[in-house]
Design a protein that fits this description.
heterodimer; A: alpha/beta; Rossmann fold; 10 helices; B: mainly alpha; MetI-like fold; 2 domains; two-stranded antiparallel ribbon; 2 strands; globular
Chain lengths: 253, 296
């Protein structure tokens, strides 16, 4: 049951112009698990996660080889609707990026573009997703204040709430705590642990302790390749590859 | 050490003087404008000046009502906005959102080049090409009318509006677009509901600066607007905006005469109008920067 594959990358190569960023990446992402992607800066981990919801479509002169599946459908197939993929695979970015609108409107936006018109349904949904993102208690009295007035950690949780509201199946976190303080980071990590009950999660992180704390599986990327992929516990306690060991023990990166 | 210090202070004062030179010019112009214009109101009341529709400065019993001139300016400006806002904002959207980098690298400088064409050339073009063409096409008594003036002025203001709107669009952080797309919005929804609102006050600033450019334009309107000091009832009547009145009559007005003072008073009105527009643009763009979190 917990071994059901949700997303799968098959022989993925990715190029920015002629510069290869990913080399023959093969990876499975399992349902209701947190899959962590670790590795030093520039190893291709962000590039990879952005392929999972086709955020790299807009990068000029980029080229993809290989295939990525979501429940058996090739997401880069020309027949596939990119909008549909992005609705099913949500994303939370490195830097909190709420819209310059009110807290309420930030969440309402996603619901509206998904065709929701009924005011009371929208209101329920907004409250619901704020609760799920553990932000409700802090903002319930000021839903109509600008989202930009929230702290960094609150903004990031708002972005998570905004993402949850459109009910994705998979959520991608691209270094969600990179710009946050330790307390905010801890709150986001707690949240991740709750969210994995319902969602399939992929998280890119710089922070190895974070990967160890939250994830079930971990992939270690180096220079665009997967060096090692397996159970997080194994990666951190008995790495098979000497490079993995060198990285997790802090000898580089 | 001491010499270095004095060198520094020389630099500081030289650049300081250069910077304040602008202020001196501004103050000087304002001062002269008001000094020459204000005495008019000893002879003609401000109310008669602003609300009078008769502009007969050289009659035996002269009248100095600028309402028809003001109306001419406003008509032409409003018409020009109808031309330059869709064109300017539309081309900005295209350049920023749809054109690739290669097209953008060609298009934007070309649009900006349009701003470099002298206004007399625009006026000339309007007078000998556009006006006769419109006259034949629409069967109107003269092609030199508010419509032609609006059209030509509108096109003249396109570079201002396009270039500034494009800047505003490009200041919208990529993260807003990404956030919207990642939620499953289409490119179009992202543009209309996220990018445009975020660039809204920047685009308004562009529009206002376009207005003040059109309002202050002289040579072109003088050549193509027809020059009749009446309140226009349609776009196809000749009009006489404030600027062309000054340009046409200043040469004939005796220095210090009432007519001369009235022309200065018109300049004061223009100055005040464009001043208000520029202040509004400044306030809007400041609010815009705050909204996007750009400190300044």
């Amino acid at each position: 049951m917990d071994k059901e594959i949700r997303m799968r990358a098959e022989g993925v190569n990715f190029f920015y112009g002629s510069r290869p960023a990913l080399k023959d990446v093969n990876l499975e992402i399992y349902r209701n698990q947190v899959t962590a992607i670790i590795g030093p800066s520039g190893c291709g981990k962000s590039t990879f996660i952005r392929l999972l919801n086709r955020m790299n479509d807009m990068v000029p002169k980029s080229r993809l080889e290989g295939r990525i599946f979501l429940d058996g459908d090739d997401i880069h197939d020309p027949e596939t609707d990119v909008v549909d993929i992005r609705r099913r695979v949500g994303m939370v970015f490195q830097k909190p990026n709420p819209f310059p609108k009110s807290i309420f409107e930030n969440i309402k936006y996603g619901l509206e573009i998904n065709g929701m018109r009924d005011k009371s349904v929208i209101e329920d949904k907004v409250v619901d997703s704020l609760k799920k993102a553990a932000l409700w208690e802090e903002v319930k009295g000021r839903l109509y204040d600008s989202a930009l007035r929230l702290s960094g950690g609150q903004q990031q949780r708002l972005c998570i709430a905004r993402c949850l509201a459109v009910e994705p199946e998979v959520i991608l976190f691209d270094e969600p705590c990179a710009s946050l303080d330790p307390i905010s980071t801890a709150r986001i990590e707690e949240l991740l642990m709750e969210l994995k009950q319902e969602y399939t999660i992929v998280i890119v992180t710089h922070n190895m302790q974070q990967a160890a704390r939250v994830s079930g599986n971990t992939a270690f990327f180096l220079l665009g390749e997967i060096v090692e992929f397996g159970k997080t516990q194994d990666i951190f306690t008995k790495p098979r590859d000497s490079r993995t060991e060198a990285y997790i023990t802090g000898r580089f990166g | 050490m001491k010499r270095l210090f004095s060198k520094e202070s020389v630099y500081a004062s030289v650049f300081g003087i250069l910077a304040f030179a602008c202020l001196i010019f501004l103050a000087g112009i304002t001062l002269v404008l008001f000094k020459e214009g204000l005495p008019l109101f000893a002879k003609v009341s401000l109310w008669d000046f602003l609300s009078g529709t008769a502009w007969y400065p050289t009659h035996e019993d002269p009248e100095f009502g600028i309402l028809s001139l003001l109306a001419g300016s406003l008509w032409v400006t409003a018409g020009a906005m109808l031309v330059c806002l869709p064109l300017g904002i539309g081309s900005a959207l295209y350049i920023n959102e749809i054109a690739g980098n290669t097209q953008k690298a060609v298009l934007k400088p070309l649009v900006e080049l349009l701003a470099g064409i002298p206004s007399i050339v625009f006026g000339f073009f309007g007078m000998v090409v556009v006006a006769p063409f419109l006259q034949r096409l629409l069967h109107i008594p003269t092609g030199l009318c508010a419509f032609t003036a609006s059209l030509i002025l509108g096109i003249m203001a396109v570079p201002t509006v396009c270039s500034l709107s494009e800047d505003a669009l490009s200041y919208v952080p990529a993260s807003y677009r990404e956030a919207s797309l990642a939620l499953g919005a289409t490119r179009w929804e992202t543009l209309i509901k996220v990018v445009l609102p975020a660039a809204g006050s920047g685009i308004s600033t562009a529009a206002i600066l376009g207005v003040s450019r059109v309002m202050g334009e002289t040579m072109t309107v003088l050549m193509v607007s027809g020059g009749a000091a009446i309140i226009p009832h349609s776009f196809f009547q000749p009009v006489r905006p404030l600027t062309s009145t000054i340009a046409a009559e200043m040469g004939e007005a005796a220095v210090g005469s009432t007519h001369y003072q009235a022309l200065f008073a018109i300049a004061m009105v223009l100055f005040t109008l464009t001043f208000i527009f520029n202040i509004a643009a400044e306030i809007l763009s400041r609010r815009y920067r705050l909204k996007l979190g750009i400190q300044r």
